[in-house]
Design a protein that fits this description.
The chain is mainly alpha-helical and 222 residues long. 61% of the residues lie in helices and 0% in strands. The chain contains ten helices and no strands. It is globular, with a radius of gyration of 18 Å.
């Protein structure tokens, strides 16, 4: 498909409708509103950074969690395949389809654990940072406890220490507390951000989150 402004608008509108329908009953930390926030973050970062294909960035942001592996028995290929199938149905060029598929395949935090980076692109960097931003700050805190409740995990257990040396498989099967998740993932994200814009935006959210944890532990200990 030749992507002029009219076609782009039509594709975005169809993609939004598709994602809303697929995620209609999703866990509330990974629902349409999460996608919308990541989409907005990605547009903001991409425009500031420049030198990226914003059509790829926007499609990647909209489709990045279309079939998250943790909600599909750990199947890490269902997301990329679902994204590709949808884009083909919209007659999107193969070059664009391939880039978006790779974003969906390589965006996750767990994919960076103990494995060599096999794919990079400016568009992936933007969408990855946009997604990581939504795991930080006030919304990141809310999402952490929403998912913890969904999985019936304890809020906190002082006898259960964070595991900072997990393998990818250990991370995927981790049943630790919600507070441990901050130390095992969320507090690591600031230093994993890609473009300078993402790093700058992450700083403030990281500070807020660390302040929250300090208050939480003070209240827990009475």
């Amino acid at each position: 498909m030749s992507v002029n402004n009219e076609n782009r608008y039509a594709v975005m509108k169809t993609t939004v409708s598709f994602v809303k329908e697929i995620l209609r009953d999703a866990e509330k930390g990974h629902d349409w509103f999460h996608i919308e926030r990541v989409w907005n973050n990605a547009k903001h970062i991409g425009k500031i950074e420049g030198n990226v294909d914003m059509f790829v960035v926007e499609l990647g942001a909209l489709l990045h969690d279309i079939a998250d592996a943790k909600f599909h028995d750990g199947n890490e290929e269902i997301g990329p395949k679902t994204a590709r199938t949808f884009l083909i149905s919209q007659n999107i060029d193969e070059a664009v389809t391939e880039k978006v598929e790779q974003i969906v395949r390589h965006i996750s935090f767990k994919g960076s654990i103990g494995t060599k980076v096999t794919y990079t692109s400016p568009e992936l960097s933007v969408v990855q940072d946009a997604d990581r931003l939504d795991a930080l700050g006030a919304i990141g805190i809310a999402r952490a406890f929403t998912y913890g409740g969904f999985k019936n995990r304890p809020l906190y257990d002082p006898t259960q220490k964070p595991n900072l040396t997990m393998s990818k498989e250990e991370y995927k099967n981790n049943q630790g507390t919600s507070i441990n998740h901050f130390y095992e993932k969320l507090l690591l994200l600031k230093d994993k951000m890609n473009p300078k814009t993402g790093k700058r935006l992450a700083e403030e959210r990281d500070i807020y989150m660390r302040g929250y944890l300090k208050q939480f532990l003070a209240e827990w200990e009475g």
